[in-house]
Amino acid sequence: MSTTTSTTTNDENKRPSFWGAIIGIGFLCFMMFAQIFLLGEDWVTHISLIFAIVVCAIIALYSGFSWQDVQKGILYGCEIAMLPMLILMMVGVLVASWIASGTIPSLIYYGLQLINPSYFLVTAVIVCAVASLVTGSSWTTAATFGVAFIGIGSGLGISPAMTAGAVISGAIFGDKISPVSDSTNLAAGVAEANLFDHIRSMFYTTGPALIITIILFFFIGMRFDGEGADISRTAELLAGIRENYSVGLLAFLPPLVVVVLAYRRINALAVMVIGSLLGAGLAVATQGVGLGSMMNYMNYGYVSETGVEAVDSLLSRGGLQGMMWTISLGFIGLSLGGLLEKTRMLEVLLEKMGKLVSNSRGLIVTHVVSSLATNLFSASQYIAIIIPGRMFVPAYRKLKILPSVCSRTCEDSATVTSPLVPWGLGGAYYMGVLGVSAWDYMGWTFLAIITPVIAILYGLFNICIWREGERNDVNTYNQPYTESLPQAELAK
């Protein structure tokens, strides 16, 4: 018995020094900087992360952890990545089947005719926000409406990076305030807030951020008045799609089914499988695609062979194998995140930041910065919600700040910035689905940039930082918390 107690105590006392944690995180930052600015390679993130894992493992071993501890941390990260990466595999299959079925070609065909170029970016934000709000899933929105908007934008002569920024801005807004979103429920549970108190609180930060985002995209979109678009290329796209695909209302059946299933909270992996099979069946039945060819497309990606370069370059994509670059990045990124969490490097750094929370200004700013840093180094918005959130709850309680402020800050910093981390789950997913590098679209993802800034400004100027008795919230820290902490699905 004494041996067991001693072992447990020793295990709990294992932790790297502050400078050890700084060296590990600093090396990761250096590798990312060198990769982009010194080597000029923005697609070799995998190798940079592997080097960072090696350095962090050495620091952990030097700090008293065993190789088994290091390996457990890496495998823990892989376990977190498993379900999202399985979903990502099926997204590749879904995209290929929806191109072959005429679904994506039909969305592009009608979108090019109906959407005014001047309002295209604003339309992308609003449509994706509504779709994500209804389904509670930014990932489903990106894989369906997002892919179509990328195609439409290309036909209108609008940069894919700009379109991706609009799509992601809308998608994460709807996801962030949807009562059926896993991240929304998780943040409320972590902060001990009532779900609808949490959503109501988020409107004060995310609402202004969305309005500013729409205004920015409105003025940017005015550059695309139709004259700036390549009309001949648009006409070529329309003719190429019309002559080679059976476009019509029936092609909209797969995305309609996916939206309904997602809204009904059917498992995300099951939704992707059903959507893929429905698209494949439609391709065989209406597009004349053979079963063998369809299976080949779903594995290796659809290859458009219309002879029209604009159509072929736009519609040759998807497939299970086409997602492997992104999937491997997700596993490596989460391996590093799991290692940093289980060897307590993140904990050591956050404890240093925790000394800055003696007042509301320092608390909000520290919480935002901590979540941003955790998102950056753990590659997971879920870890970025849970670890800083639970760490700072006592500080919110001590200052009598409502739980809905804490939960809102979790999302203002962790959820919205996830797509901006190229090696994180969100960044890897959007890069894989939309085919645009995170390094390219991050400057256009206005909502993800503006929301944390608003949260910090609110903290600095004590705006909407409600204390107990100042707002009629259901839950306060003086009341027992009755709602159970939801199980994160670890996937959008």
Automatic annotation (TrEMBL):
InterPro entries, A to Z: Na/H_antiport_NhaC, Na/H_Antiport_NhaC-like_C, NhaC_Na-H+_Antiporter
Domain Na+/H+ antiporter NhaC-like C-terminal: from-to ranges: 170-462
Annotated keywords: Antiport, Cell membrane, Membrane, Transmembrane, Transmembrane helix, Transport
Signal peptide: none
Main location: membrane
Transmembrane segments: 18-40, 47-65, 85-112, 119-139, 145-173, 202-224, 270-290, 322-341, 362-387, 441-461
Location in the cell: Cell membrane
Topology of this chain in the membrane: Multi-pass membrane protein
Record family assignment: Belongs to the NhaC Na(+)/H(+) (TC 2.A.35) antiporter family.
Protein name: Na+/H+ antiporter NhaC
